[in-house]
Amino acid sequence: MTNKLKLAGLILAAGLTSMSAQALANNASQSITVFHDPSCGCCVGWINHMKEAGFSIKAIQTPHMGVVKDKLGVPQGLDSCHTAVVDNTGQLIEGHVPASAVNKMIADSSVEGVAVPGMPVNSPGMGPMDGNLVTVDLNGQPFSKD
Fold it and tell me: 10 pLDDT exceeds 60?
């Protein structure tokens, strides 16, 4: 019985590793362009969070974030310090949205974008997540809670 348990454990570990590798591979095929102010350190924290989740990130520094947000159509009241676009879908990511919410958005092509308005301390790049971060869609309706 011990050998069977060891074998089952090895098979389970291999399966989980394969699933994790597949998730990273899926995200790696998702390229995201992020626009942020060059002096904003929390934006870099969010970029690192997304890279750790397996996304390919192209960061563009600009002191003209208002112009970027206007051109991309970020709704007033949902703005944050950085704005990103999923390159192959055009979906919008505003602010410190967790990678899990981005994955959920990408899986549903009817969702035009998601946002974490402001700069909440319990969001990626700002501080530890506590399970109470609410991501909204571009209409301001709750989309996910992480």
Answer: no
Query: Does residue 113 contact residue 139 with C-beta atoms inside 8 Å?
Result: no
Residue with tokens 């399966």, as numbered in its chain = 15
Token duo for residue 43:
């934006």
Q: Which fold has domain 30-145?
A: Glutaredoxin (3.40.30)
Cβ atoms of 125 and 95 closer than 8 Å = no
CA distances from 123 to 9, 38, 93, 119, 134 (A): 34, 20, 14, 8, 9
Burial of 129 (0-12, 13-18, 19+ CB in 10 A): middle
Spell out the domain ranges in the chain. 30-145
pLDDT tens-digit map of 57-99: 999 999 999 999 999 999 999 999 999 999 999 999 999 999 9
Helices (H) and strands (E) in the chain, counts: 4, 7
Q: What is the DSSP string of 27-76?
A: HHT-EEEEEE-TT-HHHHHHHHHHHHTT-EEEEEE-S-HHHHHHHHTPPT
What is the pTM (predicted TM-score) of this model? 0.81
